[in-house]
Design a protein that fits this description.
The chain folds into 5 domains: 44 residues, no CATH class; 93 residues, no CATH class; 75 residues; 226 residues, 2-Layer Sandwich (Nucleotidyltransferase, domain 5), CATH 3.30.420; 232 residues, no CATH class. It has 23 helices and 18 strands. By secondary structure, it is an alpha+beta fold. The strands form 5 sheets. A 5-stranded antiparallel sheet has the order 4-3-2-1-5. A 5-stranded mixed sheet has the order 8-7-6-9-10, with helices on both faces. It has a 4-stranded antiparallel sheet with strand order 13-16-17-18. The chain is elongated and about 120 Å long. Helix 3 packs across helix 5, helix 4 crosses helix 5 and helix 7 crosses helix 9. A hairpin with a 2-residue loop joins strand 1 and strand 2. Helix content is 33%, strand content 14%.
């Protein structure tokens, strides 16, 4: 307070009013204002008020000593020298606290203040630093008010503008031009300079304000735009604009399953489909944040469907089986995981691989249609899992899973034949020729890598809860946490797996159930033909699998019933929903709906046979190759075979393959001139009965609003056999 003492009678400013101190009692101060209002305030609270000051003696602030370090060395040296001169003038001692005798011309007992100021000015002038007594007096006053900072040359401490003394009108025009080009295609600084010139002419008139020379203009642009996302290519500007504003809060999870992140990304590996046709796969993973365990993986052809995300949930709660040829060291019994204790709780763990079984509580997903679809949401609800969508265009919200994808690319993908690099600029010249692994084989390699490398490798960001300096592996972290949080197995029945399949709501007519130009019929429908269900809309719940459209599942009063396609026996090779749509787009309707459906089935069988033999157009061969890839992962319907032995089962993956979309085909014209990537119309016949018409149907018809890969059918599994597991419980 600049030497002023807070005592009775002193006026102070507090709470935007002027008060008079009337009494001090301990740590309390009693105040009274001009209206005779009385207030008693704690002294600490009074001093901490931003408006507090003693009237006539403003509160002294602590000098910004830290800013001295930012100044040039000569400026700091000069300020320290002036501090010694001022102290000698005022006290006679340039350095306080030292046992010394004042010089006669600066001894306060012999000289007045004015004489000492004159003596100091003469001394400085003789030393080559011209100064007057007025200058010395001014420096004394600044030192009393601001301390050492008051002796600093203000010109050196002044903050400089990044654009210097440039014309403000030019700066305003540059900022306007930069903002206008934010969404434009990539341009040059020359174009920007011309744009600024046009803005200056429009605003101030022709020739009034000149555009700076090119070198000066470029310097100004960089000063204004660097690190602001206003320069660079269009892609760079979009990335910067889509990034959310910081700060970013770290994602923290304290127990397994508390937070699980789901995401998909193209795998940088070409896979062989069939007959020399190659394509890229898409990887979807579930990452547990607390343990960094990759709980489940689904590898599909380009175009992951929501059913693939739903399958992750089932895989997470089911132990991964050991595969033929795997080293015994990869078994859970040989790892740090408490195997004996888990086996006593869950018999399925016996013989499992060393990958944790984690039941998710909350899954974090992006805004992609795969993860916000009704199918995936319903699957989460059936398992009691909460879905938490990440904010749009917010990469840091799922930073853990994004970093995991990067590690998979570095530690796995680049060692696999057919590696493409992360983008076309890094791709080799003969990648297609290098591809030698099929989709199931790449899935096998990935699963083995996860158990061998990822789950056993220590992560720098993963620390033991009781030893923060100890980095641990995902398996070690799960072993440490599961003893605290416990383990409760989730057991799924056969009906639970059917519940994961996407839903349609349709009517049961005399001819059966028809959608997408396919008719499904069976005698189990007889009691319900023409009748409405007990649901409010009167429709029946239908679950279908676009990866294997040869049957559907209908929820009848007695439970789930499988209903086959009436032309199932006419098609000898497996096909997918996309294959069927391709046929629909190429076969013209020339008969009634029943005959047209039969013609479609015959055309589909001919296509698959012809393309499978290497004949047909390039697009037809691509369709057949993708259907073959589907067959390599999806086995026959559950009732057609006995469940295979878990340890000797072929590499099948829950009956699912990658979703086929029109854009995933070759965009070029086929050899016979048909256009690729046609828009496929919905499969409703215009003469369908009213009860089964789309007007009465609830939900999204196939092909509109719902991606073609939204289904899961219980199949012999490369991870586990769903039906065998269901039978055990």
């Amino acid at each position: 307070m600049n030497g002023t003492v807070l005592e009775p009678g002193v006026q102070v400013r507090f709470a935007q009013r002027t008060w008079t101190v009337v009494m001090l009692e301990g740590s309390c101060v009693k105040l009274i204002d001009a209206d005779n209002s009385v207030a008693t305030v704690l002294a600490n609270f009074l001093f901490a008020d931003p408006d507090f000051e003693v009237v006539g003696a403003p509160r002294r602030e602590v000098p910004p000593f830290g800013l001295l370090e930012e100044l040039p060395e000569p400026v700091r040296t000069r300020a320290y020298a002036w501090e010694r001169h001022v102290r000698e003038v005022e006290t006679g001692y340039p350095v306080p606290g030292q046992d010394q005798i004042p010089r006669a011309e600066f001894d306060p007992a012999l000289r007045t203040m004015a004489e000492r100021e004159e003596a100091k000015a003469a001394e400085l002038t003789a030393a080559g630093q011209p100064a007057s007594a007025v200058t010395v007096r001014r420096m004394r006053a600044r030192y009393r008010e601001q301390g050492l900072w008051g002796l600093v040359d203000g010109r050196a401490a002044r903050r400089r503008s990044p654009v210097g003394r440039a014309d403000e009108r030019v700066i305003a025009a540059i900022e306007q031009a930069l903002e206008a080009q934010r969404e434009r295609s990539t341009g040059t600084l020359s174009r920007l300079r011309r744009t600024v010139g046009w803005i200056l002419e429009d605003v101030h008139g022709v020739g009034v304000v000149k555009v700076p020379p090119a070198s000066t203009f470029n310097r100004l642009v960089h000063a204004l735009a660097d690190r602001q996302g206003l320069l660079g290519t269009a892609a760079q500007r979009r990335r910067h604009s889509s990034r959310p504003a910081p700060p970013f809060t770290p994602t923290v999870a304290l127990r397994p399953g508390e937070l699980v992140m789901l995401d998909s990304t193209p795998l940088d590996v070409m896979v062989v489909l069939a007959d020399g046709v190659v394509g890229k796969a898409e990887l979807t993973i579930a990452l547990d944040v607390a343990t960094r365990s990759i709980c489940a993986t689904v590898l599909r052809l380009a175009g992951t469907g929501s059913v693939d995300a739903a399958v992750l949930l089932a895989q997470m709660v089911t132990p991964m089986r050991m595969r033929p040829g795997w080293e015994e060291a990869l078994a859970m019994s040989r790892s740090v995981i408490p195997y004996e204790r888990l086996v006593s709780l869950d018999a399925r763990v016996e013989g499992a691989a060393a990958r944790p079984v984690i039941v998710p509580e909350t899954v974090v997903v992006d805004q992609g249609r795969v993860f916000i679809s009704a199918s995936f949401t319903a699957a989460c609800q059936s398992l009691g899992v909460s879905v938490q969508p990440a904010p749009p265009a917010n990469g840091p919200a799922k930073g853990n899973v994004e970093r995991t994808f990067l590690t998979i690319g570095h530690r796995f993908s680049q060692y696999v034949a057919g590696y493409t690099g992360s983008d076309v600029t890094q791709r080799g010249s003969n990648v297609e020729d290098e591809a030698c692994w099929t989709l199931p084989q790449v899935q096998d390699l990935l699963d083995e890598w996860l158990v061998t490398d990822w789950q056993h490798r220590r992560h720098a960001s993963l620390r033991h809860p009781l030893a923060p300096k100890l980095a641990v592996s995902p398996n070690e972290m799960w072993a440490a946490l599961v003893g605290v949080t416990g383990y409760v197995p989730v057991l799924l029945s056969e009906d639970d797996y059917v519940e994961l399949i996407p839903i349609k709501r349709l009517g049961i007519n005399d001819y059966g159930i028809r959608f997408d130009y396919r008719t499904y019929d069976h005698e189990v429908l007889n009691p319900h033909r023409g009748f409405k269900s007990t649901a409010g809309d009167g429709m029946w719940e239908i679950h279908h699998n676009p990866y294997d459209p040869q049957q559907i599942w209908v929820r009848l009063p007695g439970g789930w019933q499988e209903v086959p396609w009436i032309h199932k026996e006419r098609v000898s090779l497996p096909f997918t929903d996309f294959t069927w749509r391709y046929i629909r787009a190429t076969v013209e309707r020339r008969a009634d709906r029943d005959e047209h459906e039969q013609q479609l089935a015959q055309a589909l069988d001919r296509l698959l046979r012809r393309a499978g033999n290497g004949e047909g157009t390039r697009r037809e061969r691509t369709v057949a190759a993708r259907a073959s890839a589907a067959a390599s992962l999806a086995g026959p319907a559950p009732h057609q075979q006995e469940p295979p032995d878990l340890l000797t089962a072929p590499t099948l993956s829950y009956g699912l393959v990658g979703a086929f979309t029109p854009t995933s085909l070759d965009e070029k014209h086929g050899e016979e001139g048909e256009a690729a990537g046609e828009e496929f119309e919905d499969g409703w016949d215009e003469d369908d009965e009213p009860f089964g018409s789309p007007e009465d149907a609830v939900g999204t018809p196939s092909g509109h609003g719902q991606p073609p890969g939204l289904a899961a059918v219980p199949r012999p599994s490369r991870i586990y056999d769903a039906f065998q597991e269901a039978a055990q419980w």
